[in-house]
Specification:
The protein is mainly α. The protein is built from ten helices and no strands.
Amino acid sequence: MALTGPAPAPREGADDTSSRILDAAEHLFRTLGYEKTTVGDIAKATDMSPANIYRFFHNKADIVSQIADRWLSRLDEDLARVAARPGTAEERLHRFALAAHRDARAQFIHERKVHELCALVINEHWPVVQRHIERYDATAEAILADGVATGEFQVADLPATARLIRTAMVKFIHPMMIASCVDDDLAHEVEALVDLLLTGLKPRDRRRPV
């Protein structure tokens, strides 16, 4: 006769454990700051031993790198959804550019400890940032391609133009630049810049005077 009783709890998978560690570390980094948070603190917050944390991550810097990758991946997914909403290519590029500024400002500037982490990632974990840049450019390039197909935009080199848009937007999406220009009227400036970019992208016979 089979024994009866409660079914055993499912074992936590490696991915679940990694996510739990990252969630706890992100909370501690946001509240205590990166420098004051130790691997021991993260272990305590997850009811693990420090040795178990090292089974999943090489060190604290590795944890930071993966947290940053999660942040930026979520940000890029949000921007891709914004860019994919119905509308003309001009409307979509306008939404995309403004959303990139709004999200960067909200994610990286309003919380001082998050800003400190941004500086660390930019200086010491460049591959994470490079992947973010590539995703940003790919979204911009997709909008440009649609605009060329509909005749809204005149673009000779799509990848180069996408990179130039990012370069023009750097003041409004780079955490360090936003922080240094926090007293500027960034909301007004980014609107003016996007209008200028859109005018430059239009076929010559459809451009309005700037």
